[in-house]
Design a protein that fits this description.
mainly alpha
Length: 84
């Protein structure tokens, strides 16, 4: 079913709105039990990111801080799953 709708969804977006495939790095996520502790302090991490950015005079919006923390979490989870 999804295969039938994929071309239609592709028509809804402009080519510049797609990620270049070389920019996409997929990985295996660890088990749910290993992920949970990483997410428990998400808001604290965002607050710390905002505080540190303000102290360094590189002020971030809340959306930017959220994005940066999500990126950090993604990297951490990929490291956990790869055993690094």
């Amino acid at each position: 079913m999804l295969e039938l709708y994929a071309p239609l969804v592709g028509l809804m977006f402009k080519p510049r709105e797609f990620y270049d495939p070389v920019e996409i790095m997929l990985g295996v996520m660890p088990a749910f039990e290993r992920q949970t502790p990483v997410f428990t302090n998400f808001e604290q991490r965002v607050a710390l990111m905002m505080t540190e950015s303000a102290q360094s005079k590189n002020v971030l919006t809340i959306q930017q801080a959220h994005q940066l923390v999500w990126q950090d979490i993604s990297e951490e989870l990929l490291q956990v799953s790869s055993g690094r």
